[in-house]
Amino acid sequence: xxxxxxxxxxxxxxxxxxxxxxxxxxxxxxxxxxxxxxxxxxxxxxxxxxxxxxxxxxxxxxxxxxxxxxxxxxxxxxxxxxxxxxxxxxxxxxxxxxxxxxxxxxxxxxxxxxxxxxxxxxxxxxxxxxxxxxxxxxxxxxxxxxxxxxxxxxxxxxxxxxxxxxxxxxxxxxxxxxxxxxxxxxxxxxxxxxxxxxxxxxxxxxxxxxxxxxxxxxxxxxxxxxxxxxxxxxxxxxxxxxxxxxxxxxxxxxxxxxxxxxxxxxxxxxxxxxxxxxxxxxxxxxxxxxxxxxxxxxxxxxxxxxxxxxxxxxxxxxxxxxxxxxxxxxxxxxxxxxxxxxxxxxxxxxxxxxxxxxxxxxxxxxxxxxxxxxxxxxxxxxxxxxxxxxxxxxxxxxxxx
Length: 401
Description:
Elements: E1 4-8, H1 12-24, E2 29-33, E3 50-51, H2 62-81, E4 85-86, E5 90-94, H3 100-112, E6 119-121, H4 123-129, E7 137-141, E8 145-147, H5 149-162, E9 166-168, E10 173-178, E11 183-187, E12 190-194, E13 196-199, H6 205-211, E14 219-230, E15 241-244, E16 256-259, E17 265-268, E18 272-273, H7 287-294, H8 297-305, H9 307-318, H10 320-328, E19 339-351, E20 362-366, E21 369-374, H11 383-392
Parallel strand pairs: 1-2, 1-13, 2-9, 5-15, 13-21
Antiparallel strand pairs: 3-8, 4-8, 5-7, 6-7, 10-11, 11-12, 14-17, 14-18, 14-19, 15-16, 16-17, 20-21
Helix pairs in contact: 1-5, 1-11, 2-11, 9-10
């Protein structure tokens, strides 16, 4: 069998890995298997479209390192390929004096992570950037921006195929068998053999790993985030990106306002348990996915740890009034009449059996396989940097130049 690597999952991370592997080892056969009829159909394009610079992440963590290098690589990639993007900057706003210590910690993290051009803002300086935002202080992050991630996925696919890679859509992995020489992966489009396997299956990464013989000690629990759109006449309230200071007691970031690269402004998201791993509405229900989540002890321990948060997020999903109240903390002039229903995304959140959310990237490496079991935000922004990190771990591949 010739040297062949199979990559399962045609999202932005899987595409980036295929691209990087072909750049570093052009003689290798690379086949990417994607179950949908097109690449990048789920987390890669069901997100806020933000280029994250690495402000929030623990210094020294893999996520912090990859975010900081990743946003710069992604910006360069977009320039090279003519992909719509804009480095518009973001403000992280403290809405009360009680949030100032947390804002100070973010400032310190940003400095330690090497972000460029960070500025502390007083209320007057905040209003110069975002006239309708309310806050007692803020941090301005000029390196953050917005991007067309669908365009990124399309460009990555073109690069993979032009370098000789084989992108197979409509090829859902249904069986994985280890052999003396490597792996045999059964799909709806036939069987594929390879000497190395890379699992970038996102929302289904734990199940793909299990097919390959990895016990599911880490489970993917899907959380849906729902957005509103600002009506055109209300879009003047948001110039760039307006984010809250995250509450350290809770694992989610909180609602924010995001300009979109195609026009318009999003407001949200919340975070509720999705009833299907690709469930973008309350009506999308998968009995298998729901049973998988509800029989996992970690989910119940998570809900016991954060009962107020979980109930609040569900009520906010069903109550526009409560959603508006959350948004008004950042932009007081927003009203219910300014909002229309927007899109939604599902976050593949890896969770331990004790109910702890895994916040950093989580990789399981075997002699002939590498499984990406958690690729949280900023995975889309950092996908090119993640690819470098993963390919560095593969045997027999030249180091990055």
